[in-house]
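ingest -> validate -> predict -> emit
validate: passed (alphabet ok, no gaps, 767 aa)
predict: started
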Amino acid sequence: MKQQINIKILLLLFVLICALQSKEKLFSFVSSPDWHIGEAYIKSAEVIEKANRIQDSVLMDMKKYSPQFIMIAGDLIDGDFKGHWYHVSNTYNSKVINQIHKDADICYGGLKKKFSEHGITTIIAAVGDHEVGDNDWGVNSVKSHAVKDYRAAFQKHFLQTPQGTWLYPDNIGSVAPRPTGTLYEGTSYAVKFQNLLVISIDQYRQDSPTKKLNNRTGTIIPDVEGKHLEWFENILKAARSDPSIKFMIVQGHAPIIGPVRKKSSSGMLFEKKEQSSLWQLMKAYNVDLYFAGEVHTHTASKEANSNLVQLVHGAMAGNENSYNYIVTDVFDNKLELTLRIEKFDQSKPYFVNAGTLTIDKSGAQPSITATGELSLVDPKGLIIHYDFESAQIAINYGYFGQKFYNGTPVGVTQTTGVLGKAYSFNGNAKTTTFGEHPIGEAEPRTISTWVKLNTINEGTISGSGKTLKNINGVYDFRANNGKLRLYINAGNNKRFAEANQNTIKINDNVWHHVGLVLPGKSKNKLSQVLFYIDGKEYSASTSNPNAAIYTHAGMAPYVIGKAFKSNGPGFVGHIDDYGLWSSALNPAMMSALYHVVSETSLKYNVHDMDQLFALYRNRSNCVVTIDQRDWQFKQGLTGSPGRLISYGNNGYHLILDNSGNGLATVTSSTTIDQFNKCHISQVSTNSKHNSIVIKFSLNQVTHITCDLFNLQGRKLMPLIQNRLKSGVYTFNINAIQTNGTLIPNGMYIVILKGDAINLSFPLPISW
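emit:
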């Protein structure tokens, strides 16, 4: 009997030990696309010394996490490398091939040596556009012919041993770890690390050096198809049949779903984007993360109908004012990702945590939690919102935040607007972002703003993009003699669409709500543009109905009051409450943007309205609270779409389509016990880590937003924005502002909102 008891105790101890081990970290790795520094090793001693100093700073910080490997989603080398690779000849020949391999030995070899000095010997690298010569690739050009040699050099250094054997030879199930028999067998590969499968994809499809695949990029496009795609699906299928694989990460250079923040980038995105077979396969086989680079900053986003997170990150080492990388801790049932961002103290670099992303698969369904600068962006939401309440800076309250998308006003003055203050423009004034225009190519978008024009005004309300080869890469939203226009290119060849307004004009010195909707995708033609004035839709009139709208957003900021590079007339008049959405809002939404402000006392700005639109899109049971009024999704409503309908007890209906779907306010008879739904136990600061600490518990699944306000009611910065399940949460949020300084000492208010939750707490800050 005693022996049986001892066996039971041992079994119990074994179970407890296993349970404890499952919560321990298995290993860590780091990820850092767009290293952009490899070609330094074929330059002068001064350049090499600077490159080593920059890399030492980053790698010393990475080393603290003892990473098992580093992932680099493309662009290990800078654009200069393309010249060194084939400058020896104007024709494709043996000199070109020899030069490519000679330079690759020096540059790739130099990078690997530097990583090894800091204890990183396993490099999971992906092919970026720079690894195959940098865009563009002309038909029958030397560069296009040399693509196979670029790939051979990459294969030699990152997939093979010095003896020529494969570095990662193990099959995934019965599937080969590389797409053998294809052009990509030396550049696409899969590697298993304990419970994690990493698949690195060479996305740079080339059918032939003499075949154009794209007007913009020539013989290469970011795409995966044919036998290459079949191999990818077989790998995913095999992984899902292997119970030892808990997590799957796919790595490729080009972002797939937009929009994404951009900085000093050509902004090349994956062909067909979220409609592509690659993205659809990742969703079908429940891939956890897609890592990408290319755009030199970070954006985390997720489609509403899947748990697949796209994480775009990285920055050009030495070429930007801050570098960033991701450190990932891998557990048995959880991935914990932390964004590390470089800061400077009297030119001395140091790193701070700037955001977190956690994927927890311990429950029946994956739970995704994101904070700080890794907060998830709504792919269809409000990207830019300027309320113009600050004279010094146009603060962006949209999803893309303030770091790169605040507007810098030049020559503007403030005046009274429709919703508080507005900006006044004199034809030479403008407001410009630091980051590049967030929506490009043929993607849908919506503009909503209020304007007040004098009788002689002609000017650009907002503009971005730039001309590129034979592509109409510009889009400028203008007023011309009281009518709205969209120009899609600059210079003498002025293709534009004009609103069919008939006798209605807006240059009457009165505030008007104006809007522009570009349906995008297959409807990216001038004839498909829709204009809105005071809630009413107007079709487009154009002499070029089939002219394609394909905005070239690379290296072009977003500008209010002028066109990029001042192409076209500057705006003369006033602008208030400017919003840019990364989707095509429907007519009822555009009508609501006008009528809610003009016909009621609610005075909701576009940020408030976007919260209602998101509630409508998601069809959830959530409650959104705006100015102490609770809204919920409703079906079967009657009335005019886009118009607020009062129904007593100070309640409203707002119909947002032609099927009676919309929103309704929660009546005063509805009891909401906020304390039972959410309890905040701590709101404080941590001076050691320059952070704001918020601890709270939830007893329901809810979408939480938490923001910091000053005592005048102005929102200073978002703190939390995530969908959370029930549980206890502690968030440490970086308190460093976009200008690099700490939030000043003083009294502030933290407001936390969720489904039927609206709580506020004082926060005294004293560092």
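The two ends are 63 Å apart (CA to CA).
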